[in-house]
Amino acid sequence: MIFGANFAAETSKSFIFTDMATNRTFTMIKPDAYLAGNSGAITKMIEEAGFRLVAVKLTKLSAERAGQFYEVHRERSFYGELCAYMSSGPVVAMILEKDNAVADFRTLIGATNPANAEPGTIRKLFAKSIEANAVHGSDSDENAAIEGSFFFSGTEQF
Ligand code: IDP
Ligand code: MG
To answer: Domain coordinates of the chain in residue numbers?
Structure first.
């Protein structure tokens, strides 16, 4: 009986942990939006869309660290320019929590190219170009966890 109770407790703990992890995403307000003074307006849109701020940090990436963050795009033609751009000014890094966080945040920010973004999306409202497109949004639960821990230690997450 005791073994059974412990097993149930452990199972339910790991279920809760997994469930929480799937409800987080990672974003950065990129240098163009930060330098244009749009960090507050973008963060307001994020909170009004129902995302809770788990972690927030104003920081600046070196070109090398930007390259590590965008390692997956190393072979793309725009990789060098992207790393230069992402290290050209401060970024606001954030971990966000909400049901269905990754997909709902991608909907809130809109398409990579603001010309194709839906009206009312963050990129439609604030992006300057396909490169300087105001915000990052994780593309999967797995990458959200990797990207969040790229910027934040466990004690910086609330
Ligand atoms: P995403 O940010 O919408 O997920 P990705 O394809 O993952 O788009 O590209 C990462 C970032 O690289 C984009 O947000 C944008 O800043 C930049 N980028 C993507 N495509 C291009 C391009 O064709 N030219 C220049 N920069 C690009
Ligand atoms: Mg992406």
So the answer is: 19-156
In the three-class reduction of DSSP (H, G, I as helix; E, B as strand; rest coil), residue 94 is classed as: strand
Segment 135-153 shows an average pLDDT of: 98
Examine the pLDDT at 12 and tell me if it is beyond 60.
Answer: no
Candidates 87, 123, 131: which one to mutate for ligand 1, based on the most atoms within 8 Å of Cβ? 131
Residue in 30, 102, 112 to alter for ligand 1 test, most ligand atoms within 8 A of Cβ: 112
Examine the residue annotation and report whether 136 is marked as an active-site residue of this protein: yes
Q: How far apart are CA 155 and CA 100, in angstroms?
A: 24
- Do residues 86 and 61 touch, judged by C-beta distance below 8 A? yes
| Closest C-alpha to ligand 1, atom 6 | 112
Q: Does pTM surpass 0.90?
A: no
Q: Which residue has the tokens 């969040």?
A: 148
CATH superfamily of 19-156: Nucleoside diphosphate kinase-like domain (3.30.70.141)
